[in-house]
Amino acid sequence: MTGTNLYHALGLHMHQPPGNLERLIQSSPEDAEQIIRCYERAAHYTREYRDSAHLHLGFSGILLEQLLDPGIVDAYRHIVDIPQMLEWYREATNIELVGMGYYHPIFPLIPKADWEEQLTRGRVIIERAFGRAPRGFWPPEMAFSMEMIPALVKAGYAYVVVEGIHVWPQDGLSDIYRPYLACHEGVCITVVPRDRDLSIAQENGTDPDWFAGESLRRVQSSPRPAQARLLTTWSDGENTGWFRTLPEDLGFFGRFFAPFMERARTGETSLTPIALSDYLEKNPPAARARVQTGSWSAGSMAGQEFSRWAGSEAQQKAAELIWDLSRRYWDLAHEQGSLGEKSRQALAHARTLILEAQTSCFLFWGDAWIPHLYKRTMPADRDLAQVEDDLLSNRRSK
Predict the structure, then answer these.
(1) DSSP states along 348-397
(2) Contact 145, 107 (CB under 8 A)
(3) pLDDT for position 33
(4) Three-state secondary-structure class, residue 267
(5) CB 36 within 8 A of CB 258
(6) Peptide bond before 208: cis, by omega within 30 degrees of 0?
(7) Which fold has domain 6-291?
(8) Which percentage of the chain shows pLDDT scores above 70?
(9) Residue 288, Cβ neighbours under 10 Å: how many?
(10) Phi, psi of 133 (to 5 degrees)
(11) Quick check: 99 and 138 in contact, CB under 8 A?
């Protein structure tokens, strides 16, 4: 089937919390192999179908930091040649890289003063790893608010993928199969709605023929079926058995991606794979929308947008600690000219720990992973206290 107006942007989200690749290879080598092969498969299959496939891949900065670590490269060498894998990504013109923030933070839950560095560090390491900068942004945990728009644009992003059920078009017609322009404080960015249901199917297992048929059915019943239709599906790329399964021909790439791209290659599907940048260049947003604050987890429940990460008393206490440490850091950062070398080093160390503590995983698992957060905040507190004491001593001596 050719000549349809239905375009498909397929995305995968890749992330591991700090130190997790080392922990896995030491304590759970089977899981480690399953996960590292997920990253290799994405590179391998896009090379295999370079004439028909388009794939969007988002890597957290902390995951790339681990993949670039010589110790990790050596530890996984018997499974995957990581440098060669990264080189495949660098060469793949049919992979569109997407940013997400260095330590994978829930942006609406962390201090705004920290947004810029999370965004900048994330872009820098993507350029370092792959030789090109991302144009699009995937909010960690799909946690988005309109207030993020100026920071994203300042960081260099042209579009952001958001949960489709949170998009409120100005004309009142719910239509997740086209992009929109969203503006905040005079700054605008393109927002691309995700199809939630089909993304869930993508993550947990689906048949390419069912997927194509269901996609066509959905867009034909959308408000503007005769116009160009953009179906965007996005999911984690390594967090379910559908992606991790060995052998690979039983999972996502073997049972869905490869046959789907074979059909695209021969024109036997109603979906045309496309890169979002290419689609948006030809079909820029013609309508405006607001995006409700929320994430993937809470749907449209007002007031409960981030309860998955801040619902318990322990989670809220941990989040408040991060805000306090960030405030103390910025108070001291404004005094750097009065600090000695040792204090400046302590302040820089605290800064990294504070940003690392903002990793969403430390709050995602209820109270179970909060100790990982405190392993960062406790030494950060000591570093800041040292700098505060030194600054006070310097003032007294004058």
Answers:
(1) HHHHHHHHHHTBTHHHHTTTTTHHHHHHHHHHHHHHHHHHHHHHHHHHHH
(2) yes
(3) 97
(4) coil
(5) no
(6) no
(7) 7-stranded beta/alpha barrel (3.20.110)
(8) 97
(9) 15
(10) -95, 150
(11) yes
Give residue for tokens 């000219």: 337
Is 70 exceeded by the pLDDT of residue 303?
A: no
Question: Cα(354)–Cα(341) distance, rounded to whole angstroms?
Answer: 20
User: What are the domain boundaries of the chain?
Assistant: 6-291, 311-397
**What single DSSP character describes residue 253?**
I
Average pLDDT, whole number, for the chain? 94
The DSSP H or E segment spanning 36 is helix 29-48
Furthest-apart CA atoms within the chain: distance in Å: 80
Residue 384 has pLDDT above 90, yes or no: yes
Alpha-carbon distance 229 to 163, whole Å? 17
Give the least confident one: 175-189, 305-319, 352-366.
305-319
Tokens 């959308």, residue located = 222
Residue type, position 289, single letter: A
Nearest to 208 by CA among 266, 270, 163, 275: 270
Does position 34 have pLDDT exceeding 90, yes or no? yes
| pLDDT band with cut points at 50, 70 and 90 for residue 367 | confident
Q: Does the global pTM surpass 0.70?
A: yes
Amino acid in the structure at residue 114: D
Under a CB-based contact definition with an 8 Å cutoff, are residues 190 and 158 in contact? yes
What whole-number distance in Å separates Cα of residue 350 and Cα of residue 357? 10
DSSP string, 114-176: GHHHHHHHHHHHHHHHHSS--SEE--GGG-B-GGGHHHHHHHT-SEEEEEGGGEEETTS----
Q: How far is CA 280 from the centre of its chain?
A: 20
Q: Tokens 């499974």: give the residue.
A: 79
- Asked whether 145 and 106 are in contact (CB, 8 A), the reply is no
Rounded average pLDDT over 115-144: 97
Say which residues have a Cβ less than 8 Å from residue 370's Cβ, sequence separation at least 6. 314, 315, 318, 362, 363
Query: Tokens at residue 188, please?
Result: 């605008």
Closest CA to 15 of 77, 78, 67: 67
What is the residue type of 392?
Answer: L
For residues 328 and 384, is the Cβ–Cβ distance under 8 A?
yes
